[in-house]
Design brief:
mainly beta
């Protein structure tokens, strides 16, 4: 099914995908284990707020707010509040970029298909950048790459539940994280229902402290 014939539902699917990767609500262990004093394994819980979604490039067939058949990408801004074990409470500012291309040329099939063997569910490439700022003002800035995918065996109009997995690297740190490196893997799902969209996910991270 082409992007142009399902533009409205496609835009909904992509917005749900943004929320899936940005909204992480999950159980964490009572403590984090560290193999050496300067390598810290981290678990996080967060609550997200989507603060803006725009489509582009703006022009005939692509509205900045509503999307359309000639849109090639989606950009979103997300704010988060959460708690990291063992680092404590934090806030986060995240920017999400999804590149599907006009007509979905940059997407790949998710495995979902119709009875004739035609793909009807897709995965969209994604880049995230985000900065977590902790109670003492220290921060960690990261960038990650991954995909958002249809999660059903049959995904009519690409509007079903979605899954996402983002692998990120730590680019820089300030305060107690100055000079830190490391990375994380974010896994999340978005499940639309009559009462709204439910978000669950998990982040496993490690931080290599400079000292």
């Amino acid at each position: 099914m082409s992007f142009s014939s399902t533009a409205k539902n496609k835009n909904l699917y992509l917005i749900l995908a943004v929320l899936a990767c940005a909204s992480l609500t999950y159980a964490v262990p009572a403590r984090a284990w560290s193999p050496t004093p300067n390598i810290i394994l981290v678990e996080e819980t967060t609550h997200q707020t989507l603060t803006g979604v725009t489509f582009g490039p703006v022009g005939p067939g692509c509205d900045i707010n509503a999307g359309g058949p000639n849109c090639a990408y989606l950009d979103a801004a997300v704010t988060e509040t959460g708690f990291a074990i063992p680092f404590g409470p934090f806030t986060s500012a995240r920017t999400v970029h999804l590149l599907f291309g006009v007509g979905g040329i940059y997407e790949r099939p998710s495995g979902s298909h119709d009875s004739a063997g035609n793909a009807n569910g897709f995965c969209t490439p994604e880049i995230d950048t985000f900065t977590d700022t902790f109670a003492d003002g220290s921060s960690l800035s990261s960038s990650g790459q991954g995909a958002n995918c249809c999660a059903l065996a049959d995904c009519p109009a690409n509007a079903g539940p979605t899954t996402s997995e983002i692998t990120a690297i730590i680019l820089s740190g300030t305060g107690r994280f100055a000079g830190a490196t490391g990375g994380d893997i974010d896994s999340a799902v978005a499940s639309p229902s009559s009462s709204g969209t439910n978000f669950i996910g998990r982040t496993d991270a490690y931080v290599l402290l400079a000292k």
